[in-house]
Structure formats: C-alpha cells, structure tokens
Amino acid sequence: MRTWPAYRTLWVFLLLGWTVSAADRALTGPVVTWMIDNNVGFLADSDKPYALGGLIGGLFFAGYMLTQFPGGYLGDKYGHRTIITISLVWAGIATMVSGIISGLVAFIAVRVITGLGEGTFYSNDRSLIAEQTPQEKRSLGMGVVITGLALGITIATVFTPDLIDLGGKVFAADQAWRMPFLVLGAATLVVGVSIAVYFRRQQHGLPYARATLHMLGFAAIGLAAIMAVYFVGDAAGLSDLWIAILEVALALMLVGFVFTRRNTDVGVVLKSRDLVLINLAFIAVLWNLWFFGFWSVSIVADAAGSSFGRSALIAAFNAGAGILGFPVGGWLSDVAVRHGGGRKPLLIAFTSAQFVLTLIFGFVIAAGGASIWLMAALLFSASTFFNAMQPIAHAMIADIAAPEHHGAAFGMNNLIGEIGAVLSPAVSGALRDATGGWSAAIFVDAGLILGAIVLFLFVREAARSEVGPTGRFRRAPSPATVSSSTG
Hints:
Main location: membrane
Subcellular location: Cell membrane
Transmembrane segments: 49-66, 140-159, 179-199, 211-233, 239-259, 280-301, 313-333, 345-366, 437-459
GO cellular component, one term: plasma membrane
CATH architecture: Up-down Bundle
Number of helices: 20
Shape: globular
GO molecular function: transmembrane transporter activity
Number of domains: 1
C-alpha cells in the first residue's frame, strides 16, 4: 500500500498559508470599493477616491516588495521554515490591527507593516517546495500550493460583503469595514501557529528570536523609507499616482544596491540573463494579478450596474479560476518535461491565450451594457490561463538557479515583479478617475501582458534533465544549474 508522502503534507500546510495571506492582502480592494460606494471612511472627502484607494493598495505592495529579497536572504540564513512561520504570525497580528486603528495615515502605515511581513513568505515557500519535492513533481507542487492564492482572493472577494454586513451589526454603520480585517487576521494567526507546530515536529530549535530581530531591522528601514516618500510626496502636493511611482523608484534603488554587491553569494542570481528576463516579465504578471485582484468588484459593478454583493460574486470568477489553473498548469509542465519537452512552450502558449481573452474583455467593457455572465466567462477563462502559467515560470526559475540560491532567486523575482503590484492599483484607479470607466485600464493591462510574452520568448531554459529507469529526474550538469546562466 502506498504511503502518503511527507512532501504532500508540506503542500497542504503551505497551501493554507497562501490562502490566509492572500485573503489578508486582497480584502483591501473590496473594502475600498465599499467605502467609495457608501462615502465613508478614509475616502469620504477625496475628490479622486479611486486614485487614493489604489494608492492605499499600492503602498501595501511597496512594503511587500521591499522584503522580497531580504526574505529570501533570511530564509537561506535562518531556514525557510523559520521565516514562513514568522511571516504568517506577523501578517495575522498586523491584519487584525488594521481593523482596530483609525485615520488614513495610521491605516496606511499598518498596511505597509503587513506587507513587510507578508513579503518574506513567497521566496521561502517556493524554495522549500523545490527543496522537499521530488524534481519530477516540482512544478505540480508549486501549482498545488499556490492554489491557496486563488482560494484566498476568492474568499476575500466573496465574503467581504458578508463580513461588512456582520460588522454593521456589531459596530456603527460607518465602521462596518473593520470586521473583515479582524476575522481574516485571526484566521491567519491560527494558521501561522498551526504551521509552527507542524514545523516543530520536523525540526526543533528553529531560530525564531534571531530571525525576527533581523526581520524587524529590515522592516524598520522599509517602513521609514516608504512613509518618508509618502509624507514628502503629500507635502509637495504630488498626486497619488506620482507617490506610487516614487515608491517604485525606492524599490529600484534597493535593486541597484543589491546588484552592485557583485561579490556576494547571490551575485550569480543577480547577473543571470534568463532570470532577469523572467523577473521583468513578472512585472506584467503581478500588475495583472492585483489589477483584477484589487479592482474586479468595481469593474463588474460599473459595467453591469449590479449590487456590491452580486458584483463580488461575479468578480470571484477571476480569482476562483486559479483553483483550476494553478495545479493543472503545474501538472502539464511536469508532463511536458517528462516526455522530453520543455516548460517554455506551455508558458508562452498560456500567456498568449490570456492576452487574447483580456483584450476581448476590454472591448466588451468599452462597448457598454456588458452581460454579467459574459464578463464572468471571460474573467474565468483569462484567469485560468494566467494562473496556469505561473507555476510553470516558478519551476523554470528553480531549474535555472542553483539550489543554494533558490531563496535569493525567488526573492528577486517577486521584488522586481511587485513593481507591477505597486503601480497597478494606483495607475488603474487614476485612469478610472480620468476616463470615468475601466476599459483604458484593461487595455493597459493587456499591453503589458503582450510585453511579457516577448520577454519569455528570449528566456533559455536550463539544460534538459534526463529521466532515469525509476521515473525520477537526473539533473544533467550545466552552468545554468550549477551557478545560474549568465550572459
């Protein structure tokens, strides 16, 4: 009788981690939409509420972005299990605090702090899967686990209206928005503690105290830098969009600082031509993810004139598609490699299908009077291909980078990619304020996806592995897998 392998248990726990952390970051979009619709909270007095709402979302991702590379570095130093646990507990506490504080600046600061903690999860999750999963199931594992991202965004999108209704019964009507943060933050804290117990059974004496202090040091610098840019930009009278652009410039300064340290143990990651191409393409990937993740409820509500609750249900077709797309994409990628092919053709094919469907969705929105079910079908179809391509790209990163550099490689991938997440909510919100509709923002999104396809075309996969008689992979030695490809 076949036993349940330990790596699959790991997949389940990491999937739960993705679910709660994704719900924490995704709930801000529906909450902001509700505030705009009801003219309450931080957005009541804004003359450009969509741009301000987008900035709030973008500043979260500024924090999330700044700890991507440090998170990978700390995972390589203290252990990936250590940083994953700290990240989830941190995110749970910070999300609950988001539902307690009052005032725009305080809320922004706490959301930045939440992002700084959550930003360390991705690189360590991807690295731990690559380390613990048989190579012939690597892409499938990454796809199954990151399905939690789709689950979390779906939960936040579908249930935020119900949690706000519950909040209206517990708090004053204009304070109802607090309840989603309190409930989902508590859920994240429970999952974080559960994962800590699970990891303790595998490895005793994880250095939580030292790693937390090191994380706090990075977070303090990140928080000070992000809030300084916000205050200076606000005092100078800059628009919310320009503040978001300055936050991206801050992140690029971090990338430049890291890149100049050419003699560090991660120099091969930073100088890899193929990893750089994937990382740049991921700006479009993260732009698309959080354009629809943040604004999909508002897009559907504007286009169909439907209620907040019904719009959330239709918008959930975009997030829910990942439940199918993530694992299927990962599985197909592994099948292709086992049969002597590569991952790249599937990556390009799926991204191209997403581009075409997103373009069609933009024309449907621009035409006006869109059928709510046509929108649901297009959102689901485009998102299925979009989610299927991500674990394929993740597996390519793991194939290209040497194992000892996985944390740094995935950290840099998400650091660069999060440029799109920072700008997307703010730029799209500004376009909505300027044009009175969402079609322009959708066409911008489609254009960026097309750019990602072009970049993927020039990526060289790692040397093809051979399959031994047991069906397990034998890695063919090559410069790409030993020290990462350069050029």
